[in-house]
Amino acid sequence: MENKPGADAREWIAAHWREDLTLREWWQMLHEHRWAFPAWPEEHGGRGLRSPEIDDVLHAFDEAGIIGAPTGLGVLMGAPIVMTRGSHEQVTRFLGRLATGVEGWCQLFSEPGAGSDLASASCRAERDGDEWIINGQKVWTSGALDSSRGMLIARTDPEQPKHRGMSYFIIEMDQPGVEIRPIKQMNGKSHFNEVFFTDARVADADRIGEPNNGWSVATATLAFERRGLS
Q1: Which of 131, 172, 194, 225 is catalytic?
Q2: Is the model's pLDDT at 90 over the cut of 50?
Q3: Dist. CA 70–CA 169, nearest whole Å
């Protein structure tokens, strides 16, 4: 027997889907009616659904042959970390832009000398008033060329032990001081990139969590990634 959210989704699709809608209009409509990410809590624009309700909602979209909500690391990892670790202002500012595809985010964790050992990251962030100045390098960053922002781990206090002294930022990618170099793969594609920061800037208002507590936020982000991929 079909659950009520699945039936509601089918009824809503029948009433609202039109082939003349642009992708942006459709994503905006999905978000406004809380069908973009029905697993999100209601206070964050979702419906608070769980399996098997979510499975039936997804099946309703597949059955209708229409596109669903935006995908990518921003909604897979960024949105959950903003919901759980971000401020109310950050939730208000970021979630809608991710849910409607206005922004896509990449993950700026791995470094040439800190791939599997994230705690050894050496990319630096130095405080300058209401901003932080970023210098360093990240590598194996997927989707960097098409991302509006990046989830960045940077060392803010080199005097602390390596699992401390790091902070977590949501940094704008399209700015002076951010250079993206595609990594050529054997198949000719360049899905991964190197990212170089030279006096790039990020507002303190775009820091997630407390200063020097980036390790905790980063491990939570990776947990959301594993959960989402599974």
Answers
A1: 225
A2: yes
A3: 22
